[in-house]
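Quick start: read one record
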Amino acid sequence: MDEKKVRAGIVMGSDSDLPIMKDTADVLEELGVGFEIIISSAHRVPEKTMDYARNAAARGIEVIVAGAGGAAHLPGVLAAFTPLPVIGVPIHTATMGGVDSLYSIVQMPSGIPVATVAINGARNAGILAAQIIGVKDEETRKKIEEFKKELSTKVEKKDRLLQELGYQEFLKRFFSKH
């Protein structure tokens, strides 16, 4: 658990989701947002999952990011038991490439919304979580603004280099396979 005040919850259905969900944790750390991260399966430990969702707001959590693969019920189950915003991260699966996870998360019934990012889009989920927190927290909002300025600066720098080198040399330098 992060030493900062915990404001975001990261929940995954299995430890095998951690290599993807670490991207959420990494970006929240980058942006200075305190978080906790747990494993809680909607199917294997439904009581724990329900309790987590029901008690999250009272513990100071402001947003939950939930990663799940396959049937991917975890984000929806959490959303059913909390008034907090829930962001679902569909995890890539071997059988259907994560499309099964995506459809499971994005097709929530009316009244139980779950924001959904791309398959394995855990980094964007973390950024979105920070943006939600930034609605009321000026320090977090300023960090998001800085983050987006840095993105813009990186693109402008790459474009200047492309214009300077030409596309063929740019490809050789940055996309050659040797």
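The chain is about 50% helix and 15% strand.
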